[in-house]
Amino acid sequence: GNWEQLGRDTSNSFFLRELEFFNCRLGDHKMSFLFRGLTRSSSVKRLCLRRNEFGFSGVQSMVPFLQNANNLSSLTIDYNNITSEGFKSLFRALRDSPITIISAISYCGLDSIEID
Q: Which UniProt keywords apply (predicted)?
């Protein structure tokens, strides 16, 4: 499928509040396409990416979206190999975000959690 087009279509929706990509085999490559299209989306409040196949590069693809996601309150990324570096990158991107829930503890390849 065309993940970038899906991201663009989602960005154009003013009413879409929740996105759930549960067990969709989203690897780093698909994540880069999806979030390239999704970057301008501002209506999403809840994003679930549980049980996919992305790692640090996939998290990096999310950064522009996360920095612009003014309404995002919940992010679920359990069961992805985001690693400690990805976790740090995620927190840096969310520094000024209104997010209140991040679920990223289960099986994420974290060996330490140090945020600078």
A: Repeat
Q: How far is CA 14 from CA 1, 9, 17, 30, 35, in A?
A: 23, 10, 8, 23, 17
Distance CA 105, CA 112 (A): 11
Rounded to a whole number, what is the distance in angstroms from the first to the last CA of the chain? 38
- Contact 55/30 with Cβ under 8 angstroms? no
- Integer Cα distance of 114 and 116 in angstroms: 7
The H-assigned helical ranges of the chain are 3-11, 28-38, 56-68, 83-93
Predicted TM-score of the model (pTM): 0.85
Q: How far apart are CA 30 and CA 76, in angstroms?
A: 17
What residues form DSSP beta bridges with 35? none
Q: Identify which of 66, 104, 70, 71 has the alpha carbon closest to the alpha carbon of residue 85.
A: 104
Mention the CATH class of domain 38-116. Answer: alpha beta
